[in-house]
TrEMBL record:
Cofactor(s) the protein needs: Fe cation
Localisation per UniProt entry: Secreted
Gene3D superfamilies: 3.60.21.10
Record-stated family: Belongs to the metallophosphoesterase superfamily. Purple acid phosphatase family.
Protein name: acid phosphatase
GO CC term (a single one): extracellular region
Pfam families, A to Z: Metallophos (PF00149)
Organism: Dovyalis caffra
Chemical reaction(s) catalysed: a phosphate monoester + H2O = an alcohol + phosphate
Keywords linked to the UniProt accession: Glycoprotein, Hydrolase, Metal-binding, Secreted, Signal, Zinc
Amino acid sequence: MTGLIDSKYMALCLGLMIFSFGLCLVSTHAELQRFEHPAKTDGTLSFLVLGDWGRKGAFNQSEVALQMGRIGEELDIDFVVSTGDNFYDDGLTGKHDKAFEESFTRIYTANSLQKQWYSVLGNHDYRGNAEAQLSHQLRKIDSRWLCLRSFIVNAELAEIFFVDTTPFVQSYFTDAGGHTYDWRGIGSPRAYVANLIKELKLALRESRAKWKIVVGHHAIRSIGHHGDTEELVSKLLPILKVNNVDFYMNGHDHCLEHISDTESPVQFLTSGAGSKAWRGDIKEKNRDGLKFFYDGQAELQRFEQPIKEDGSISFLVVGDWGRKGNYNQSNVAFQMGRIGEELNIDFVVSTGDNFYEDGLRSVNDPEFEKSFSKIYTAKSLQKQWYSVLGNHDYRGNVKAQLSPMLRNIDSRWICLRSFILNTEIVELFFIDTTPFVDKYFLRPKHHHYDWRGVMPRQHYLSNLLKDLESALQDSTANWKIVVGHHTIRSVGRHGKTKELEELLLPLLEANNVDMYINGHDHCLEHIASRTSQIHFLTSGGGSKAWGGDVDQLNRDGVKFYYDGQGFTSLELRQTDAKVVFYDVFGKVLHNLKLFKQLNPVL
C-alpha cells in the first residue's frame, strides 16, 4: 500500500493492493448501504480525493481540475472521492440547479475523471437543498455522481466508510450564524448521530478488510482554520482506534494536511483544497503528530518539457496577437511557422493579450478559433502553447481562457495565471502581472475587469510573490527565465511598470534570473540591466504595432528596439543561449548570445 499527498497537484492519491470486484449495491447486516467497485486486472486500486471545490471554476477550481485530470491519467484511477462542500456557498437550490453542471460536469472534463465520484455532504451543502444533492435524478444529468449521507465502498482488502459528519457538530443547530440548514431526514440530531455511530461500529467490527478507511467532511485533527472538531474527537475517534482504522480522510479545512495519531495507527489526511484556500490561517496549538501541512491549493503548477536528443531546447515567443488575422497577425504567423520549422521548435510562449479587444466571452466564443486555431496552422506550430494573461484578456471572461475545456477545442492551448515550465536546461516561470498594476483597479476608465480569483488583491499578490521566490530559490536550472505580460523596462508606449520594478524586479535580481520576457508594448526590444545580469526582452509584435511611439529620453541599456510587428526565438543549451528577433517578413533584426558556466548542482 502506498499513500501520496502532493501539494503541487492539489489532490490526495491512494494506491491499494486489492482483489477484483464489481460495482453493485448489495445488502449488509448494518443499515449503511454498500457498494463494490471493480479493481484493475493487476489487482490494484487508485483514486483521487478532493474536497471543498464547487465554485463554477473560480478560485483555481479549474486549475485543480486540470491537474487532477493529468494525475488521474498517470495513475489510471478507478474513482474519485469527494469529502464534501461540493457546491458553494449554499449547496444546490434543487435538482435542476445549474450549479451542478457549472461546478461539476463542466469542470471535471478530463477523460481520466469520467469515473464514479463517491461524495459526502459538507456543512455548506446542508445550507442548500440537501435532498437535491442526494437525489438519484442528478445521475441522469451526470452518471458519475453518487452522493449519500453515509455508505460503504467495499474492496475486500480495503473498505471505505463514508460518514455524514455535519449533524455531529452542535453549533450548526445552536448557533447557525444566520444560515438555514436543511435538516430533513435528520430528525433528532442526537438520535441520528447515535444510530449512525451504532451502524458504523457494527460495520467496522464486521469488516475483514486489511485496510479500513473512514471518510467524512469535518476534520478530527487539523491545525487549519477550523482545527479539531471536538464532537468527532469525543464520539468518532474512539471508534476508529478500537477498530484499527488506518486512515481518516476529510475536507472542511481548505488545505492539504497529514497528521499521525500519537496513540494509535490512525493517519489523519485532509484534502480540502479543491478551490478557495486560506493561506496563512494556521492554528499553532496542538501540532502533535503533524507530518505535513500546506495552506493552499498548490505551489506554482509545474509542467515538464523534454529537451532534444542533442541536449538543446528551442521555442518561439509572441505576444499581443489575437486579432482574427488582422494587423499582419496572419503574416507574423506564417513567418513563425517557417522559423519554427527551421529551428525544430519544442513549444511556443505567449506573453499575453491573447484575444483583442476584450478577451474571450466564454469557452464557446468563436474568437478562440478565429484568432488562434485558424491562424497558427503551420505544422511546426502544432506544439504546446504556454500562455499567460494580459490586461486585455482580463477585460473578458478570464475563467474561459483558463478553462481546460478550451483544450477540447485545441489541445495546444495551456493558459494559467502563473506556473512553471521545466525543460532540464532552463526553467521558465510564468507570472500573472496584470493584478500588480494599480491603475486597472483605481482608474479602469470604461473597462470592466474580471477579477474573480484575484481578490483580495494584496493577499493574491503576496502569495504569488511568496510562491515565486520559493520556486526561484529551489531551482537548480542553469538558465532561469521569467515570463510576464507587462514590461519591467521598456522605451515603448507603456514604458516601465513601476509596480513590477518595486515588487518583482528585486526577486529576479536576488535569484540570478537571466531573462525577463514580456509583451504589452507592441514592439520588439532588448534592454540589458546595468545593475544585474538580467536581459529584458519584449516580444509584443504579434499583430497591431505602434510605429514611432518611443521614449527617446530613457534609453539606458537599450541594445535594440523595433516599433513594428514580429516575434522572437530562443535556443538554449546548458552553457549558451541565443535570442533572435524577427520582423513580419522573417528578417533577422537583432541577435543576442549569452554564455555561462555549468551550474555545479547539475
